[in-house]
Amino acid sequence: MSDAFDRLAANFSGITGEVGLYISAVIHKAFIKVNEEGTEAAAATAVVMAPTGVLMNFSIFSADHPFLYLIKDNRANGLILFLGAIVDPTSQ
């Protein structure tokens, strides 16, 4: 499994159809809140794929204003799996 993180040894061509990709980062965030009203929990994992030799174009999104975000399944007609809102990005 360590080959997936090696820019020279990784091979995801069977999954993506592209050569020259490797996993540059895996990020996992978890949240749990327990109080007298009940329990609330959420978790998300992201795998960041990067090209081995070519720079990709990307857009910069500055989260300095309220916004909505969602995770959807494009294989299931765009079924929304998770929806959230950031009302005040300056608060934590």
Automatic annotation (TrEMBL):
<dbReference type="InterPro" id="IPR036186">
    <property type="entry name" value="Serpin_sf"/>
</dbReference>
<dbReference type="GO" id="GO:0004867">
    <property type="term" value="F:serine-type endopeptidase inhibitor activity"/>
</dbReference>
<dbReference type="InterPro" id="IPR023795">
    <property type="entry name" value="Serpin_CS"/>
</dbReference>
<dbReference type="Pfam" id="PF00079">
    <property type="entry name" value="Serpin"/>
</dbReference>
<dbReference type="GO" id="GO:0005615">
    <property type="term" value="C:extracellular space"/>
</dbReference>
<comment type="similarity">
    <text>Belongs to the serpin family.</text>
</comment>
<dbReference type="InterPro" id="IPR042178">
    <property type="entry name" value="Serpin_sf_1"/>
</dbReference>
<protein>
    <recommendedName>
        <fullName>Serpin domain-containing protein</fullName>
    </recommendedName>
</protein>
<dbReference type="InterPro" id="IPR023796">
    <property type="entry name" value="Serpin_dom"/>
</dbReference>
<dbReference type="InterPro" id="IPR000215">
    <property type="entry name" value="Serpin_fam"/>
</dbReference>
<feature type="domain" description="Serpin">
    <location>
        <begin position="1"/>
        <end position="89"/>
    </location>
</feature>
